[in-house]
């Protein structure tokens, strides 16, 4: 792998692929360079974003180190909720849902417990721990208290979470309906979301729906190289897909561009 780079203003190693993401990490580094000194919140935001990127790349040990550092440094800051959730997610991936819940629960009174990030984290951990009904109850309670004018992206995230739990319970049709509703919201809002596309592809295949021959390659190309785990899941789906003859004008790459 490429050796880490260390932006002078950041003062800690940053993976070579991270600045290319163009997201929070890049913004944080730019803020540090603009100030010409270490900005605490910008450095913390960069650390947490790097931990999440490490999870996506499957670098669990490195994600654990960065998440722990971010958690320690987040006390008393506006990034506390993000830091706690990131630490819990890293624990889930590295040691299982029981340890993640054991870590998260004592910190809930300190967080905005009814906020979307906390609700989604609680539901995700409950589902991972084998309590899908509890996960659905958490999500339903949250939705019941939201205004109709809630942002499409926020509603789409909740619907995706519902679809994940229903898929876990083997309720494929309901899972597909939830994912398709989330996809409709995503389309109306106009933002890209390859992970949702991956969810849809998987549940459509499970439901026995025909998947175009080019769908797997197109989805693979939508992810960035550092999204190793997601790309591996796309490849696994493609390998398991039944052979399907290409139909001129439908499955050709030019027809689906």
End-to-end separation: 33 Å
Q: What portion of the residues fall into strands of 2 or more residues? A: under 5%
Shape: globular
Number of helices: 13
Helix/strand order: HHHHHHHHHHHHH
Mean pLDDT across all amino acids = 81
Structural class: mainly alpha
Number of strands: 0
Unreliable runs, pLDDT <50, ≥5 residues? 1-22, 246-257
Provide a descriptive summary of the structure in words.
- With about 260 residues, this protein is mainly α.
- About 65% of the residues lie in helices and about 0% in strands.
- It contains 13 helices and no strands.
- The chain has helices at about 25-35, 40-55, 60-75, 80-95, 95-105, 115-130, 130-145, 150-170, 170-190, 195-205, 215-220, 230-240, 255.
- Helix 7 (about 130-145) runs antiparallel to helix 8 and helix 10 (about 195-205) runs antiparallel to helix 11.
- The protein is globular, with a radius of gyration of 20 Å.
- It starts with about 25 loop residues before the first helix and ends with a helix.
- Mean pLDDT is about 80; it is low at about 1-20 and about 245-255.
A few lines on this structure:
This protein has 257 residues and is mainly alpha-helical. 65% of the residues lie in helices and 0% in strands.
Tag the structure with descriptive keywords.
single chain, mainly alpha, 13 helices
